[in-house]
Amino acid sequence: MDLIRKLHILADSAKYDVSCVSSGSSRENTPGGIGSTFSGGICHTFTTDGRCISLLKILLSNACTYDCAYCINRISNDIPRATFTPEEIVDLTINFYRRNYIEGLFLSSAVLKNPDYTMELILKTIKLLRIENRFNGYIHIKVIPGADSRLIEEAGMYADRMSVNIELPSNAGLKMLAPQKSKEAILGPMGYIRNKILENRDDIQRAKKPVYFAPAGQSTQLIVGATSDNDINILKLSEALYKQYNLKRVFYSAYVPVSNHPALPKLTKPPLLREHRLYQADWLLRFYGFRANELLTNEHPNLNPILDPKCDWAIRNLHHFPVEINKCSYNMLLRVPGIGVKSAKRIIDARKVSTLDFEDLKKLGVVLKRAQYFITCKGKYYPGIKMNEDFIKGNIVADGLKTLLKTKNISYGDYEQVSIFDLLQGNKSDLGSCVNFNNTISIGVDIWKYVYDSLTSGRESIKKQLKPLLS
């Protein structure tokens, strides 16, 4: 098979892996070498099918020996197979870099023969790049679960970032859909990489010429929608991974229907809206001081399809509001919808100089469209706002639904992003009709039932606000 045909097959197979962000690496160029990275990371542009066009994103091989039901590269699937040699990957990387097509390499692989054999090929590839070709650009590799720890340790000396895909949120899901994988085989390498990174930090401080181990850290990927796991289970898992394994990122990948396995959900499109909500919630865990059991509970185990997680939390916790913008703490500012990390810091700095009003907040970048319901300035509410639970719930839900109604279909390879218009093909006048939202985004709620029946009060006032949007 010629090299171009291999590239076509293995680049296309790599699009299902979304763990593709470089940051935190500061590998400098060396005399006579090519390429470099810096601590700010590399900017990327993503194509509609999920590939990153600033990294050469490929699989070493898609000839997998495993039979994971959710994976397009499973051994039982009838697709074209190909395998690169390490020399071919090196040649592609160097030539693409010299032509300014890429800024680095993202290298993953199916399990070829066995984990050790595959990991040896990955290690050989990056050693050829670093040592023989003196390539100092960004390299992100996938660690093969079950590979020998000595191979992982050596690979970490040449790669900028490493990741071990956890794939499914629960051990039961792994047993059902990926019986050849195990929780221990995945978490073991994660823990080993975490320990080596911590050891390396101490070594760097003592060494005259430090050798860095995975300076950009490690990440992982979770597939969303392939199992019946609720969002609360996914977020609790992510929270634990951040705390226990010091991960840089947990990536969420909406399950793309590539199999008719009886244990898989009968989806026609990837649950992209659910993936989007999980990324929003993940951001709140990492930068806003939220905990998973605050955003979701056993009574509300899934993220709201209409509202972003922060607005949804605020509506369910109105007893914390309103907050006085000139007095409340930084941590409480972060919990106000419409106020982000930068805006909160600007507010803290600005109010040291003068007392802020609503016009000042606009200048500081606060999104008052959302924040106006939850704050006061100088003891006064925003003009026209009623601090009434029914009023706030009705307006926030109406704004959320209005945003969804304006959303247009966005291409995603052979699939389209979910649009609220798909849900409105039935009888629009019957707002209480059961529209099966689960078939579209796999959240397990009826959107209209959520709008009207999940709210404890103000049902009639909400209908009045929603009716013009649906006419």
Keywords for this entry:
471 residues, alpha/beta, TIM Barrel, 2 domains, six-stranded parallel beta sheet, two-stranded parallel ribbon, 10 strands, 40% helix
Oligomeric nature of the chains: single chain
Number of domains: 2
Strand order of the largest sheet: 1-2-3-4-5-6
Largest sheet: 6 strands, parallel
Corresponding CATH architecture of the largest domain: Alpha-Beta Barrel
Work out the strand percent: 5-15%
Please estimate the helix content: 40-55%
Q: What is the name of the CATH superfamily of the largest domain?
A: Aldolase class I
CATH topology of the largest domain: TIM Barrel
Taking Cα atoms only, what radius of gyration do you get, to the nearest Å?
A: 25 Å
Q: Provide the succession of SSEs.
A: HEHEHEHEHHEHEHHHEHHHHEHEEHHH
Number of strands: 10
Structural category: alpha/beta
Shape: globular
CATH class of the largest domain reads Alpha Beta
Summarize the structure.
By secondary structure, the chain is of the alpha/beta class. It has 18 helices and 10 strands. It folds into 2 domains: 3-289, TIM Barrel (Alpha-Beta Barrel); 396-471, no CATH class.
Outline the structure in words.
With 471 residues, this protein is of the alpha/beta class. It has two domains: 3-289, TIM Barrel (Alpha-Beta Barrel), CATH 3.20.20; 396-471, no CATH class. Helices cover 40% and strands 8% of the residues. The protein contains 18 helices and ten strands. The strands form three sheets. It has a six-stranded parallel beta sheet with strand order 1-2-3-4-5-6. Strands 7-8 form a two-stranded parallel sheet. Strands 9-10 form a two-stranded antiparallel sheet. Helix 3 runs parallel beside helix 4 (149-156). The termini are far apart.
